[in-house]
Amino acid sequence: DILANQIAAGEVIERPASVVKELVENAIDAHAGQIDVLIEEAGVQSIRVIDNGDGIASDQVAKAFLRHATSKISNRHDLFRVHSLGFRGEALPSIASVADVTLETAIAGASEGTLIHFRGGELIEQTGTSARQGTDITVRDIFFNTPARLKYLKSQTTELSKIVDVLNRLSFSHPKVAFRLSHNGREVLRTTGNGNLQQVIAAVYGINQAREMVAITGQDNDFKVTGLMSLPELTRANRSYISILINGRYIKNYPLANALIKGYGTRLMVGRFPIAVLSIEMDPLLVDVNVHPQKHEVRLSKEHQLTTLIEQIVRDRFAKTNL
Ligand code: ADP
Ligand code: MG
């Protein structure tokens, strides 16, 4: 029901950037190779995400807007072995309950696609449409029926920077996906999808930054760590330039970021932070992503072992005189 979805939306959909994150993650889960994100007025006016992924079969489209209707996990066991980015089945019903949503989608080989339109949680229309494979979803008038939340949004500059941040992190974790982000018709980010992380970093932070980054790698029995990191001498003074990915998912984890910083030792100037994209692979049973609705925070069962490993790998790398 609409009220339950609006309550869930309070947890999942905080701002336009949350909508962008959920929609782009859905496109990635649908195996899209190209994802275009078109934003108007920092997402407050509209957010459109076009993908060339699997699409949704016409008899499944309305179902995708039902609460906890996920096609991605089917039992309790799966919940602890999550491979897809989404799994809670909350995003589409939540978004549809607090905005105006039009989704057009078609699967491969279908003779026609499906268009569905919700506004404030109410189904306005469902009809046939073009058979272009993939999904094209537009979210307009976010929070039109929850004015308190609309009021809580920050300036357009801030909201846009949060959207850009979401796209940056997703492009790091998915270098094989070609992303395009435009704001009010102006291109903000473009990646090629050729799988080269350094080129993605160049697209995000600039060619000069990316050129100066070095590769790190290391592992123990439980964890495999790879990444690209800036040289200690060439760092920026902002913690947000550290991105940590666990099993392909961007996460926020203070102890892991701290381990990375500690690994730089005294060569890192006080108050300065490295640019780093660190990717950690582990048995999914060692990480619980079902802690927070936005799935940013995770619980690690061997956190201390991992922080020790990260610090060691970084220290060894930068201890070498010849970088
Ligand atoms: P979740 O991602 O947690 O499964 P969502 O509410 O985000 O839940 O999406 C519900 C369902 O709609 C998904 O499980 C998927 O089957 C379908 N879906 C949503 N977006 C797309 C998309 N871009 N391409 C294909 N299927 C999609
Ligand atoms: Mg989802």
UniProtKB/TrEMBL annotation:
GO terms for biological process: mismatch repair. GO terms for cellular component: mismatch repair complex. One of its GO terms (molecular function) is ATP hydrolysis activity. Keywords: DNA damage, DNA repair. Belongs to the DNA mismatch repair MutL/HexB family. This protein is involved in the repair of mismatches in DNA. It is required for dam-dependent methyl-directed DNA mismatch repair. May act as a 'molecular matchmaker', a protein that promotes the formation of a stable complex between two or more DNA-binding proteins in an ATP-dependent manner without itself being part of a final effector complex. This is DNA mismatch repair protein MutL. The lineage of its organism: Bacteria, Bacillati, Bacillota, Bacilli, Lactobacillales. The chain holds residues 9 to 331 of 654 of the full protein.
